[in-house]
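Example S7 (C-alpha cells).
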C-alpha cells in the first residue's frame, strides 16, 4: 500500500449519556449498550486486515480498543495524547450548569467562530487541536502505510479530520461523531488525503453486511 488507511472509532454510549455531560478526562464508564456497540464494531473491524490498533488510555475508549485488537489478533497500544479534550473545572457538568457558572464560555461554545474556546483549568480548542495534530504526526511516522484503527473520542475524531482538512479550531466543532461512529480516511505519503467514510454505522444494517459497504472499508 502507498497510503495509511486510518479508522477512527468513537467509544460507545456512556453512563448518564442522556444528561449530555462534559466528559473529557473524566473516566466515565460505558452502559451495557455502549459495550455492545463496541463489541459489534470490533466484529466488523475484525474482518479487516489491520496492522495496528491504538486507543486513548481512558476506559471508555480502551474497552473498544481491547475488543478490536483481540479480534485482529493484535496487541493494543495506548496513547495518552489521544484523550478527549480536558474540560478542567467543567468536567461532569451539563451545558446548563456550565452556562450558570461560566456564561462567557457558554457563549463561546455556541458561537466558536467568535474566538478561542478555553475551559478553566482545562484546555482551549487551539491547544487541543495542536495536541491531536502532534499525536497524528507521530502515528503517521510510525505507520506511513497499512491499516490502523484508533479508538478514541468525538473531539479527537473532529480534531484529526480538522488537521487534515486544514480547518480552524473553531470550525472543527461542526464535525459530529455518534457513539461507536466511524470515520475512515486514507492518508497518502506527501499529505494528500481522502475521506472514505464519515460517522459510519457498523451495526447489522450497515457496514457489517457482506457487499460493497464492507468492501469500501477494507479498501
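Recovered sequence:
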Amino acid at each position: 500500500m502507498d497510503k495509511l488507511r486510518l479508522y477512527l472509532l468513537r467509544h460507545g454510549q456512556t453512563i448518564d449519556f442522556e444528561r449530555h455531560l462534559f466528559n473529557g478526562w473524566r473516566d466515565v464508564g460505558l452502559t451495557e449498550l455502549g459495550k455492545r456497540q463496541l463489541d459489534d464494531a470490533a466484529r466488523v473491524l475484525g474482518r479487516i486486515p489491520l496492522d495496528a490498533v491504538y486507543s486513548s488510555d481512558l476506559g471508555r475508549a480502551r474497552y473498544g480498543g481491547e475488543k478490536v485488537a483481540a479480534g485482529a489478533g493484535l496487541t493494543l497500544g495506548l496513547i495518552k495524547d489521544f484523550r478527549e479534550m480536558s474540560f478542567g473545572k467543567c468536567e461532569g457538568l451539563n451545558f446548563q450548569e456550565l452556562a450558570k457558572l461560566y456564561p462567557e464560555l457558554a457563549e463561546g461554545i455556541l458561537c466558536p467562530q467568535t474566538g478561542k474556546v478555553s475551559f478553566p483549568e482545562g484546555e482551549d480548542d487551539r491547544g487541543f487541536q495542536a495536541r491531536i495534530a502532534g499525536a497524528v504526526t507521530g502515528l503517521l511516522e510510525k505507520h506511513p502505510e497499512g491499516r490502523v484503527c484508533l479508538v478514541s473520542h468525538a473531539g479527537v475524531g473532529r480534531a484529526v479530520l480538522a488537521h487534515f482538512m486544514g480547518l480552524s479550531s473553531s470550525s472543527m466543532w461542526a464535525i459530529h461523531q455518534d457513539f461507536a461512529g466511524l470515520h475512515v480516511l486514507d492518508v497518502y505519503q506527501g499529505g494528500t488525503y481522502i475521506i472514505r467514510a464519515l460517522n459510519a454505522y457498523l451495526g447489522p444494517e450497515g457496514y457489517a453486511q457482506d457487499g460493497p459497504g464492507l468492501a469500501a472499508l477494507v479498501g
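Notes on this example. The domain at 3-87+123-218 is CATH 3.40.50.1240 (Rossmann fold).
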